[in-house]
Write a structure and sequence with these properties.
The chain has 388 residues and is an alpha+beta fold. It is built from eleven helices and 20 strands. Bound molecules: flavin-adenine dinucleotide. Flavin-adenine dinucleotide binds next to helix 1, strand 3, strand 13, helix 6 and helix 7.
């Protein structure tokens, strides 16, 4: 029988909420602490791929996915900046059962939050301190509250406060790129297919579009170089004129879409070097706190969901006394795969931004991407744990 553990999850983003969902379903006493006064997300999309779609389906979210997501269909393709097609984009796993979905981030977060008991979510709790003994871990919050738990999951993002309890602090690595992104109503673009994922690759820049909300909205992301990353706040409202100038002269499909953009957001794109360890005693890092990666494989959220399912499955075999060794096992299962994806995302960014002397070589690698995508998409973390 599963011993009920008291689990504190710090961070109510996609990773923290996905982990909390599975942990609640496994019967644990779970508390999510989010610094913001309410759970929320910016108006942008995220691609959810088969490796986590199958996990979310098992959490009971399949119907919501089909309703709120936009399933990506055949005809999705990589293109050069002039629109000429380089190759197809893979749209599902090998079995064909699980597809790729464009989701509005707020819809995904809402789906995950709605399944949790209201008493499990504590907004307005910014974690500022952590201590542990052999028997328990304790969190301190800015509002003066304290919480004791058997396990602490640090799902507090790329700027994780808790990571310093596991490894020495290091700064995030700026990629030299900004991402402009936002949503455009599909009915403003007659003639556009609102069920495909398209990626245009130019020199030092790329642009992508995929549908969310069943194709009602098109999510776009324009990736452009920048020498000035280090604003104190590195995400905010972007200037649509900068976006338009950056992609002037590209495929008319791109420029027509940008003509419809009113209010984009922008992000400085950072990742981190792979960490040597993810756990310390009763504390485990998860999601961007463990493996912040560039978005060029569309995997940050997907890997975070895999982390949460793996950690939860392993904790079903733990008791209060064996938490630390269980967390070490979690790290050994998850770290090799997440690091491969983390480094792979950097490489894929170089492909998308055409950083090749010979574009034929880049195009050959893009055409070959299906092999890597199959490795990524066919993976079932629960199956791996069951057979290990
Ligand atoms: P976050 O989403 O950052 O959540 C962390 C949470 O912790 C936040 O709610 C924060 O408020 C809270 N928090 C932080 N500090 C504290 C504290 N001290 N106390 C309490 N709470 C705290 N991924 C994909 O899988 N597919 C994609 O298509 C994709 N596209 C992307 C496009 C762009 C432009 C970018 C920038 C990223 C993209 N990603 C994508 C990556 C993905 O967004 C992240 O990897 C993912 O959101 C990480 O989830 P997380 O829960 O680990 O962290």
């Amino acid at each position: 029988m599963v011993e009920q553990l008291k689990i504190a999850v710090v961070g109510g983003g996609i990773g923290g909420l996905a982990a909390a969902n599975v942990m609640v379903q496994h019967g644990h006493d779970v508390h999510v602490f989010e610094q913001a006064s309410r759970l929320g997300e910016v108006g942008a999309g995220v691609l959810i791929t088969p490796n986590s779609v199958r996990l979310l389906a098992r959490m009971g979210l399949r119907e919501q996915f089909e309703r709120l997501g936009g399933r990506i269909q055949e005809g999705s393709s990589y293109r050069r900046m002039d629109g000429s097609v380089v190759g197809p984009i893979k749209i599902g796993d090998t079995s064909g059962e699980y597809g790729v979905f464009g989701m509005h981030r707020a819809d995904l977060l809402g789906m995950l939050a709605d399944q949790l008991p209201a008493s499990a979510v504590h907004a307005g709790h910014r974690c500022v301190g952590f201590e542990q003994t052999a028997d328990a871990a304790r969190l301190d919050f800015e509002n003066g509250e304290r919480f004791e738990a058997d396990v602490v999951v640090a799902a507090d993002g790329i700027h994780s406060r808790l990571r310093q309890e596991v490894v020495d602090p290091t700064p995030p690595v700026f990629s030299g790129m900004l991402a402009y992104r936002g949503l455009v109503p599909a009915d403003r673009l007659p003639g556009w297919r609102n069920d495909v994922h398209l990626v245009w690759m130019g020199e030092g820049k790329h642009f992508m579009v995929f549908p969310v909300r069943g194709g009602e909205l098109l999510n776009f992301v324009g990736f452009i170089p920048s020498e000035h990353p280090a604003e104190e706040s590195w995400s905010g409202r972007g200037d649509v004129n900068v976006l338009a100038q950056s992609f002037a002269g590209w495929d008319p499909l791109v420029t027509q879409l940008i003509d419809q953009v009113e209010d984009p957001f922008w992000w400085g794109l950072f990742d981190r070097e792979p960490l040597d360890r993810w756990t310390s005693g009763r504390l485990a890092l998860l999601g961007d706190a463990a493996h912040a990666m560039l978005p060029h494989l569309g995997q940050g959220a997907n890997q975070a969901i895999e982390d949460g399912v793996a950690l939860s499955a392993l904790l079903t075999q733990a008791d209060t006394a064996s938490v630390s060794e269980t967390l070490v096992r979690y790290e050994s299962v998850r770290r090799p795969r997440a690091v491969k994806v983390q480094l792979g995302a950097r490489n894929n960014g170089r492909r998308y931004d055409s950083q090749y002397e010979d574009l034929a070589q880049r195009d050959a690698e893009i055409a070959d991407a299906a092999t890597f995508r199959s490795w990524l998409y066919d993976y079932d973390v629960e199956k791996e744990l069951a057979t290990a």
